[in-house]
Amino acid sequence: MTILIILLASFFIIFLLGILIAGSYNNFQGYIIRINEAEANIDSTLRTRFDLLNKAIDIIKANTKIEGDIFTPIIKLRSRKLSNFELDRQLYEGIKEFNKYKEEYPELKKSEVFTRIDISLSESEAEIVAFRKYYNDIITDYNKLVKSFPTNIIALLFKFKPKLYFDGKDMNDDDTKDFKL
């Protein structure tokens, strides 16, 4: 009789442990899905910004007397595969250059297409800020799961690693050296 009680208790404990592991694993999977969704939204917005800056090259050249290459960082991006972190930094350089041309060449503001690009770039800035905040909020919760007990054991078992925040910092900052994407 005692053996039966021990077996039933063991089975019950294993069953509860299995439910805990499955629940924690599913929780991680939910966060991973949300992280991927946020990354896709960021990627889409960054690609839109890239396309807008590419269109701006021809508009600027057509409405000014600039000879040679403009938006060199954007032109170099055409053939490179970058992470969203790096693409975001490069696009900010392109937007700075775009704004410089907007200030130096007032005749650009007379172009309807240039004005639409300018407005679209401003709108995309608001979108990217919102998507970054959403992404970073999810990463905070995910990283808490990876680091806190007992879910850190599940993270170890299934090799879930902490993820970087999308904060525009240099990827080589000292406070991020332990994190990998």
Tell me the layout of helices and strands.
Layout: H1 2-63, H2 72-77, H3 84-104, H4 112-147, H5 151-158
Task: Explain what you see.
With 181 residues, the protein is an all-alpha fold. It has a single domain, classed as de novo design (two linked rop proteins). The protein is 73% helix and 0% strand. It has helices at residues 2-63, 72-77, 84-104, 112-147, 151-158. Helix 1 runs antiparallel to helix 4 (112-147). The longest helix has 62 residues, at 2-63. It is rod-shaped and about 95 Å long.
Key descriptive features of the protein:
mainly alpha; rod-shaped; disordered C terminus; de novo design (two linked rop proteins); 5 helices; 73% helix; 181 residues
* Count of extended strands: 0
Number of helices: 5
Give unreliable regions as ranges: 170-181
Return the domain count: 1
Brief digest:
The chain has five helices and no strands. It is mostly helical.
